[in-house]
């Protein structure tokens, strides 16, 4: 078949190949990017669904507005106000997961050859999605405080990118949290250079001890002109359930208008039924309690993973313990002649029935082959202890 030229820019991810091995019996997986299904508030979602279908089911089973279901846009507006961001219901659109918001941004903003700056490393699906639109992607280095802002500023001044894509809070895969000072500077740079910054924030609610600094969106009120160069993507996937496929995008009106037009040609609108379930759920006063359980569980798992890595692999693996989210980002140090290639290590780990994702695919270019991502979200404490022990065996 003669496929479109744009498909030449992308390939299926190496991670998918690895995932085929995860079905091996007895495997302990730190590889996935999924939340723990045991933590889904199925009772609350069932009550919300029943209420939605009992009271006037017609509109939610009917076609709906591309911009989103009205009561949900209002609910998201209130939810964002609780996080320090003022957004009118018509200042946001509902999307089919935040993944669709990223796709719509790609569709609306990227012409073949346009330069885009992302963190190195960043969310793989964003790299692939933006490449499909022909983006030339440039990676900006990060450390434990998130993206290196001096370097980012240099790259923006040098390349004049169409947009900068960032996951400031508990990044995937980095787990890093961008400091408050860097957040403010990024907004200032965006205004000075008139560069669109896309803030992807699916993990901000999953903090362990203390809430992270305000999002770029929340801070935009303090930096004049920054709201006009900022898009923010949110999602219910990590706070309620990814199967609902409900996310949102907040952006300047002209971008929202174009995104709505493109969404209309694509899926017409996000499922009204799942939107209504989310809207109903938000009115039920359950989210805070459900989130408290998620935060406590992930905090405990992250703490155990840090302790086990320190105990069993301190000389072989360097890492920064995350303060929220779902991931450890780590680096093989190769000391004492131990393995320093994460892809080789991943194969040896599978032989020991433990899985993780090598870090290389998360780089748009010049991958650091020593890096790896470990998710602590779905393994319980006993599995984490056992799995890290198996990683030690795999190192040899
Ligand atoms: N952005 C990031 C950084 C993610 O990690 C994910 C999902 N893992 C998404 C966006 C997409 O999430 P969803 O479409 O389920 O909202």
From TrEMBL:
Cofactor(s) required for function per UniProt: pyridoxal 5'-phosphate
Pfam families membership: Aminotran_1_2
InterPro entries: Aminotransferase_I/II_large, Class-I_PLP-dep_aminotransf, PyrdxlP-dep_Trfase, PyrdxlP-dep_Trfase_major, PyrdxlP-dep_Trfase_small
Keywords, ordered alphabetically: Aminotransferase, Pyridoxal phosphate, Transferase
Molecular function in Gene Ontology: 2-aminoadipate transaminase activity; pyridoxal phosphate binding
EC number: 2.6.1.39
Family: Belongs to the class-I pyridoxal-phosphate-dependent aminotransferase family.
Assembly: Homodimer.
Name of this chain's protein: 2-aminoadipate transaminase
Organism: Rhodoferax antarcticus ANT.BR
């Amino acid at each position: 078949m003669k496929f479109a030229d744009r498909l030449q820019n992308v390939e299926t991810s190496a991670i998918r190949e690895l995932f085929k091995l995860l079905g091996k019996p007895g495997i302990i997986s730190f590889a996935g990017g999924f939340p723990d299904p045991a933590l889904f508030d199925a009772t609350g979602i069932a009550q919300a669904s029943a209420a939605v279908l009992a009271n006037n089911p017609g509109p939610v089973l009917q076609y709906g507005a591309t911009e989103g279901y009205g009561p949900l846009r209002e609910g998201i507006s209130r939810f964002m106000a609780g996080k320090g961001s003022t957004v009118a219901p018509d200042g946001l659109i509902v999307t089919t997961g935040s993944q669709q918001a990223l796709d719509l941004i790609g569709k609306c903003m990227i012409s073949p050859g346009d330069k885009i700056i992302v963190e190195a490393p960043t969310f793989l699906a964003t790299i692939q999605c933006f490449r499909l639109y022909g983006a030339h992607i440039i990676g900006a280095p990060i450390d434990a405080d998130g993206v290196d802002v001096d370097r980012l500023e240099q790259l923006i001044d040098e390349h004049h990118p169409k947009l900068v894509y960032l996951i400031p809070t508990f990044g995937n895969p980095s787990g890093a949290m961008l400091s408050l000072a860097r957040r403010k500077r990024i907004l200032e740079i965006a205004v000075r250079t008139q560069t669109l910054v896309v803030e992807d924030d699916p993990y901000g609610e999953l903090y362990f001890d203390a809430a992270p600094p305000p999002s770029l969106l929340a801070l935009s009120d303090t930096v004049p002109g920054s709201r006009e160069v900022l898009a923010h993507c949110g999602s219910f996937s990590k706070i309620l359930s990814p199967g609902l496929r409900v996310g949102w995008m907040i952006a300047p009106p002209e971008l929202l208008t174009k995104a709505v037009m493109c969404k209309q040609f694509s899926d017409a609108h996000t499922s009204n039924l799942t939107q209504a379930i989310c809207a109903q759920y938000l009115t039920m006063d359950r989210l805070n309690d459900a989130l408290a359980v998620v935060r406590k569980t992930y905090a405990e798992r992250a703490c155990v993973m840090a302790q086990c890595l320190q105990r069993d692999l301190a000389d072989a693996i360097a890492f920064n313990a995350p303060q929220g989210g779902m991931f450890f980002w780590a680096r093989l140090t190769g000391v004492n002649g131990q393995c320093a290639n994460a892809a080789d290590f991943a194969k040896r780990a599978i032989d020991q029935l433990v899985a993780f994702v090598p870090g290389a695919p998360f780089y748009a270019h010049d991958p650091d082959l020593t890096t790896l991502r470990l998710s602590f979200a779905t393994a319980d404490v006993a599995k984490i202890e056992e799995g890290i022990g198996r990683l030690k065996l795999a190192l040899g």
